[in-house]
Amino acid sequence: DAKTTQPTSMDCAEGRAANLPCNHSTISGNEYVYWYRQIHSQGPQYIIHGLKNNETNEMASLIITEDRKSSTLILPHATLRDTAVYYCIVREDSSASKIIFGSGTRLSIRP
Amino acid sequence: DTAVSQTPKYLVTQMGNDKSIKCEQNLGHDTMYWYKQDSKKFLKIMFSYNNKELIINETVPNRFSPKSPDKAHLNLHINSLELGDSAVYFCASSQDGTGWAEAFFGQGTRLTVV
Fold first, then answer.
1. Is the peptide bond before B8 cis (omega within 30 degrees of 0)?
2. The pLDDT value given to residue B99
3. Is A43's CB within 8 Å of B55's CB?
4. Residue B74: how many CB atoms within 10 A of its CB?
5. Mean pLDDT confidence for A81-109
6. Could you tell me which residues come within 8 angstroms of residue A103 by beta carbon, excluding any fewer than 6 positions away?
7. Are B97 and A95 inside 8 Å of each other by CB?
8. Which of A36, A41, A95 lies at the smallest CB-CB distance from B50?
């Protein structure tokens, strides 16, 4: 079972920042927070991950609260191509760890 | 170059048939996975192999049998197909050993059982 909860859907205006929240109140010390997205009819795509510190890459920023019980994925300048289902996942630091997807947040970018 | 490739992309078959889906990754990763995405869009892990050895086997009917001839390939064989097996099946790979490795997914195989 997924260890995260996310809103079912969100929308954002094109060009604005999209902030996607995720709750993971039962996260343990050796679990990372991952974000993936799935654009319609495609395979899931890795976006970003983090453990404790905030992270940024060319796609997005990840803000993790100090207690690590929640996080926010930020797409700084959303485009129509960012319309997708976004999955927040917690995963153990283990070679046998599973990537377990929840129901995700369906993000719609409006022109 | 496609990192994780699955064939076929679409598969339509009758109930009771046996079919296979192939997956290959050219990333040099140690771990490969099979996921099933049903009509409600839930992605569920089915199997995980690490260096050709099965490490995760979720509650999946034994009609489903993964086979890994080498660490770059993880094929999925399905015997006696049923209507409920209709779904999109995704293959993925990651360089595990630590938990921070990202996974790369294939484009999926849409299986329709009629």
1. yes
2. 47
3. no
4. 28
5. 86
6. A2, A6, A8, B41, B42
7. yes
8. A95
